[in-house]
């Protein structure tokens, strides 16, 4: 207390010392109030020092600085006032009166379009508040692959020099790159360690395996505007604000109850009285996105069940963005292809909708593609979507999660024009619900004691019918309880009464059904008891004469019923065993079996209905409990019901057309049927040519340059100067000389000639190598710019066919006559390993290959494609190995085996 008294005195002194300043009153109070604290926590020396500092500052400033602390609340209040005024002025008056705004929900593609566009804007990088987003890549993302490929190639280049020979073993070699950075640098050390990890695996032919382990790290994320932070940008001279907002929306669904969904919105604002600039911007982003995706077909599938409940755009989800499949890559009868193309073109025409409308015909078109697996049904569907630039919506009726309600919802949420691909329409368990109900009722009537035998004797169905009835009762009870709760205090409505009556009736019926089952069971038991006692009586009868066949146990019955057969029983069944069972006996036996199975359930249900209620009544039966699977009527309703979408192209595919219901095939549902068959020899030839046509080079444009001990083969993008292979009206006709001039004009031909490189003395003109030589020669790569390294380097490459040499070819040029290449190998120091494929040769090989495929059309195009893909760089090898493969495949098919000899694959 003494200390505090001192403090007060000191403070008073201070005030006295500064009596000139009128503002001293405030500090007086302040310091006076602080002084007990100062006394408590600070030693007197420090306190004195602080007080003298305060005095000095006050006299220097001319006012006490602690006054500012008192000003704080005033400033805060002023700021609040200003923010209110600003909100009123800026947001309510200026924003509402002088700006235009457009909102976009995240369920709209525009949302994605805008986000994608914003992400690539240079000023996005400068913005301080952003959201980082990892970009999901697709297999068709070529630039990514190129990067990875380049990285691997670089790695390969590094290791290639380190490869000694080991032609047969696959070895993993560590990169020889020296790490020259300071080893103490941990980042560099980690990088070095990584490099070690990424060392590519080298194949016997010297090729390095690609390695994508660091791929995802190389790809930078994209940066999007952060949530609730305004993002500004200028577009076409207009200043825009973009505000991204997020909220949680509650959703009540019939079977899932209350759920929350996160929803995002974009609010685009610009200054002005019109939303025109925003509309223009949105249109621009839409086109911008379209241009990026111009060469792709967007594939959509039904969204996850938990998303589908939100309806609208949430029922479909984009699953892929595939490069367009060119129509001429689908090998099919040209007439059929043309027919579908023309029909679809006419259907999708703008005037067609009006034409249909005027006649009151629903605008729908359906196609059925049927045929064995792997014959091109899906491929043609995708190609058609590509030709017409439509998105493709794929539904597989095998999807276990798909209900009829979902199917209806999917069909009503389609865009105006699209292709809907309904796959496997035969295998989707198209159960006719009516039949199912009939079966059920017959089964239940049978179970309730009637003698009328049902067509279905499935024990599961029998149990299900009881379970279903119990569930139905529980469901109705719940409904009734809810109704009562709602109408509490009010009069009982007629609806409630009816419901009550229905519940009582259904419950009684169920109880009756289960009771009857139990009674019958008991009756059966009594009969069995009687039977059991019969032998006792029989015992008293005189024994059977000797020599008569002794009764044996009825093993069959015992096995089937699972019951213990007593000795007595066995003797009573001796006669039964001798003569076959009558139909009535069989039926009785089945009934007994069913009753045994239902016994547990019946007992539980009858005596512990409350237990069942608790077990099944916790949630209402979901549509999945009741409506799993698609019935025929459900499918028909979806594809052409009243609410079904008009304008779509429906393509249905099946492997078993004979299983389809006639109702599904009637015109209006299926307008054109296309049969897909296994590959004919002509189709095989076409498939072969398509597979390798990109590797074809024009001999006139291939040059081989020798630098020291190294020969380089290069072309001037010959593949592009040649017309595509094929004889269809779409693909043009290749000229017989293989130079592709068949479809070109004279001017084009002249231009082509001019593009040919000048002849170098060391250049080998491949025109001089005749077809026979080319066929015999080796081909390890047909790339447009391949490097041929010395013999040593290529020792690892499998020598498939004899090698020709550049020197031999050059000699041939000089002499103007054909050479036998195989013998020339020893004469030349520079082997030529790459022999490009000419169109002429490709056509010859393709023809030869197709003739080796059985004409009986037992192989599908997918099988042929699979075989060729495994030899995609080597058409000559494909030809050499085809016989063995066909032999194995035919053998496997005949024996219905699915396993092929590994060597033949
Ligand atoms: N007629 C064909 N023309 C070109 N390629 C084909 C043809 N048939 C099959 N293919 C090739 O075989 C593969 C499988 O073809 P696709 O999926 O179109 O067959 P599908 O008839 O739809 O088979 P599934 O009935 O099993 O669905 C594809 O990679 C495709 O390129």
TrEMBL record:
<feature type="domain" description="AAA+ ATPase">
    <location>
        <begin position="363"/>
        <end position="680"/>
    </location>
</feature>
<comment type="similarity">
    <text>Belongs to the AAA ATPase family. BCS1 subfamily.</text>
</comment>
<dbReference type="GO" id="GO:0034551">
    <property type="term" value="P:mitochondrial respiratory chain complex III assembly"/>
</dbReference>
<feature type="compositionally biased region" description="Basic and acidic residues">
    <location>
        <begin position="524"/>
        <end position="567"/>
    </location>
</feature>
<keyword id="KW-0496">Mitochondrion</keyword>
<dbReference type="InterPro" id="IPR003960">
    <property type="entry name" value="ATPase_AAA_CS"/>
</dbReference>
<dbReference type="GO" id="GO:0016887">
    <property type="term" value="F:ATP hydrolysis activity"/>
</dbReference>
<dbReference type="InterPro" id="IPR050747">
    <property type="entry name" value="Mitochondrial_chaperone_BCS1"/>
</dbReference>
<feature type="domain" description="BCS1 N-terminal">
    <location>
        <begin position="69"/>
        <end position="330"/>
    </location>
</feature>
<dbReference type="GO" id="GO:0032979">
    <property type="term" value="P:protein insertion into mitochondrial inner membrane from matrix"/>
</dbReference>
<feature type="compositionally biased region" description="Low complexity">
    <location>
        <begin position="168"/>
        <end position="192"/>
    </location>
</feature>
<keyword id="KW-0732">Signal</keyword>
<dbReference type="InterPro" id="IPR003593">
    <property type="entry name" value="AAA+_ATPase"/>
</dbReference>
<dbReference type="Pfam" id="PF08740">
    <property type="entry name" value="BCS1_N"/>
</dbReference>
<feature type="region of interest" description="Disordered">
    <location>
        <begin position="432"/>
        <end position="461"/>
    </location>
</feature>
<dbReference type="InterPro" id="IPR003959">
    <property type="entry name" value="ATPase_AAA_core"/>
</dbReference>
<dbReference type="Pfam" id="PF00004">
    <property type="entry name" value="AAA"/>
</dbReference>
<dbReference type="GO" id="GO:0005743">
    <property type="term" value="C:mitochondrial inner membrane"/>
</dbReference>
<keyword id="KW-0812">Transmembrane</keyword>
<keyword id="KW-0999">Mitochondrion inner membrane</keyword>
<keyword id="KW-0547">Nucleotide-binding</keyword>
<keyword id="KW-0067">ATP-binding</keyword>
<feature type="compositionally biased region" description="Low complexity">
    <location>
        <begin position="442"/>
        <end position="456"/>
    </location>
</feature>
<keyword id="KW-0378">Hydrolase</keyword>
<feature type="region of interest" description="Disordered">
    <location>
        <begin position="168"/>
        <end position="200"/>
    </location>
</feature>
<feature type="region of interest" description="Disordered">
    <location>
        <begin position="719"/>
        <end position="762"/>
    </location>
</feature>
<dbReference type="InterPro" id="IPR014851">
    <property type="entry name" value="BCS1_N"/>
</dbReference>
<keyword id="KW-1133">Transmembrane helix</keyword>
<feature type="region of interest" description="Disordered">
    <location>
        <begin position="513"/>
        <end position="606"/>
    </location>
</feature>
<feature type="compositionally biased region" description="Basic residues">
    <location>
        <begin position="576"/>
        <end position="598"/>
    </location>
</feature>
<keyword id="KW-0472">Membrane</keyword>
<protein>
    <submittedName>
        <fullName>Mitochondrial chaperone bcs1</fullName>
    </submittedName>
</protein>
<dbReference type="GO" id="GO:0005524">
    <property type="term" value="F:ATP binding"/>
</dbReference>
<dbReference type="Pfam" id="PF25426">
    <property type="entry name" value="AAA_lid_BCS1"/>
</dbReference>
<dbReference type="InterPro" id="IPR027417">
    <property type="entry name" value="P-loop_NTPase"/>
</dbReference>
<dbReference type="InterPro" id="IPR057495">
    <property type="entry name" value="AAA_lid_BCS1"/>
</dbReference>
């Amino acid at each position: 207390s003494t200390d505090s008294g001192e403090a007060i005195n000191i403070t008073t002194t201070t005030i006295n010392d500064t009596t000139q300043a009128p503002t001293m009153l405030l500090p007086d109070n302040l310091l006076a109030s602080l002084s007990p604290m100062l006394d408590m926590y600070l030693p007197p020396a420090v306190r004195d020092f602080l007080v003298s500092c305060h005095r000095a500052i006050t006299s220097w400033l001319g006012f006490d600085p602690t006054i500012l602390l008192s000003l704080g609340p005033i400033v805060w209040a002023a700021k609040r006032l200003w923010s209110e005024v600003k909100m009123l002025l800026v947001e309510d008056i200026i924003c509402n009166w002088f700006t235009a705004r457009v909102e976009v929900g995240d369920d709209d593609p525009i949302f994605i379009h805008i986000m994608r566009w914003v992400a690539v804007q240079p000023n996005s990088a400068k913005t301080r508040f952003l959201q980082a987003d990892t970009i999901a890549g697709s297999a068709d993302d070529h630039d990514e692959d190129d990067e990875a490929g380049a990285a691997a190639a670089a790695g390969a280049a590094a290791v290639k020099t380190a490869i000694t020979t080991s032609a047969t073993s696959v070895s993993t070699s560590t990169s020889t790159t020296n790490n020259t950075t300071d080893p103490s640098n941990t980042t560099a050390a980690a990088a070095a360690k990584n490099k070690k990890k990424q060392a590519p695996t080298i194949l016997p032919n010297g090729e390095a395996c690609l390695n994508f382990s660091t791929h995802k790290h190389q790809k930078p994320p994209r940066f999007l505007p952060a949530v609730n932070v305004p993002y500004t940008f200028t577009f076409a001279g207009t200043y825009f604000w973009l505000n991204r907002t997020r909220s949680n929306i509650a959703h009540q669904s019939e079977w899932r109850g209350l759920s929350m969904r996160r929803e995002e919105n974009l609010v685009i604002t610009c200054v002005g009285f019109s939303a025109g600039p925003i509309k223009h911007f949105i249109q621009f982003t839409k086109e911008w996105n379209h241009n990026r995706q111009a060469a792709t077909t967007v594939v959509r599938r039904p969204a996850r069940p938990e998303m589908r409940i939100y309806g609208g755009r949430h029922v479909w989800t984009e699953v892929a963005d595939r490069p367009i499949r060119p129509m001429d890559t689908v090998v099919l009868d040209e007439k059929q292809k043309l027919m579908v193309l023309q029909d679809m073109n006419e259907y999708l025409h703008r005037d067609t909708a009006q034409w249909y409308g005027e006649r009151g015909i629903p605008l729908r078109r359906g196609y059925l593609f049927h045929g064995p697996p792997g014959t091109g049904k899906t491929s043609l569907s995708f190609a058609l979507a590509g030709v017409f630039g439509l998105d493709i919506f794929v539904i597989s009726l095998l999807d276990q999660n798909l209900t009829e309600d979902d199917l209806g919802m999917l069909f009503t949420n389609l865009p105006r024009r699209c292709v809907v691909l309904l796959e496997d329409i035969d295998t989707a368990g198209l159960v006719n619900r009516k039949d199912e109900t009939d079966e059920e009722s017959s089964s239940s009537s049978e179970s309730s004691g009637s003698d009328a035998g049902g067509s279905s004797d499935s024990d599961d169905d029998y149990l299900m019918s009881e379970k279903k009835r119990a569930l139905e009762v529980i469901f109705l009870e719940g409904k009734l309880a809810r109704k009562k709760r709602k109408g509490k205090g009010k009069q009982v409505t007629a609806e409630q009464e009816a419901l009550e009556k229905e519940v009582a009736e259904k419950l009684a019926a169920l109880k009756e059904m289960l009771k009857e089952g139990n009674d019958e069971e008991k009756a059966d038991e009594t009969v069995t008891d009687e039977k059991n006692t019969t032998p006792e009586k029989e015992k008293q009868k005189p024994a059977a004469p000797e020599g008569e066949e002794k009764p044996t146990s009825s093993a069959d019955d015992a096995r089937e019923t699972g019951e213990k057969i007593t000795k007595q029983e066995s003797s009573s069944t001796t006669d039964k065993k001798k003569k076959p069972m009558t139909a009535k006996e069989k039926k009785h036996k089945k009934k007994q079996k069913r009753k045994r199975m239902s016994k547990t359930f019946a007992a539980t249900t009858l005596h512990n209905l409350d237990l069942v209620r608790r077990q099944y009544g916790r949630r209402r039966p979901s549509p999945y409990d009741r409506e799993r699977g698609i019935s025929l009527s459900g499918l028909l309703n979806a594809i052409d019901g009243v609410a079904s979408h008009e304008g779509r192209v429906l393509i249905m595919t099946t492997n078993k057309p004979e299983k389809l219901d006639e109702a599904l095939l009637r015109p209006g549902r299926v307008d054109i049927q296309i049969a897909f068959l296994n590959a004919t020899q002509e189709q095989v030839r076409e498939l072969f040519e398509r597979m390798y046509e990109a590797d074809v080079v024009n001999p006139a444009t291939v040059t081989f340059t020798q630098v020291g001990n190294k020969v380089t083969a290069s072309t001037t993008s010959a593949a592009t100067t040649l017309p595509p292979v094929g004889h269809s009206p779409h693909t043009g006709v290749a000229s017989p000389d293989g130079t592709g001039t068949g479809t070109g004009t004279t001017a084009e031909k002249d231009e082509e000639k001019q593009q040919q490189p000048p002849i170098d003395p060391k250049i080998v003109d491949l025109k001089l190598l005749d077809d026979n030589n080319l066929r015999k020669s080796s081909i390890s790569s047909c790339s447009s710019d391949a490097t041929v390294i010395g013999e040593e380097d290529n020792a690892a490459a499998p020598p498939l066919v004899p090698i020709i040499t550049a020197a031999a070819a050059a000699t041939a040029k000089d002499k103007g006559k054909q050479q036998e290449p195989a013998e020339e190998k020893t004469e030349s120091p520079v082997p030529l390993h790459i022999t490009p494929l000419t169109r002429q040769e490709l056509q010859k090989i393709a023809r030869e290959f197709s003739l080796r495929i059985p004409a009986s059309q037992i192989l599908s195009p997918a099988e042929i494609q699979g075989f060729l893909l495994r030899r995609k760089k080597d058409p000559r090898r494909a030809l050499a190995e085809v016989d063995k493969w066909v032999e194995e495949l035919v053998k496997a098919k005949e024996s219905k085996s699915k396993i092929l000899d590994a060597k033949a694959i």
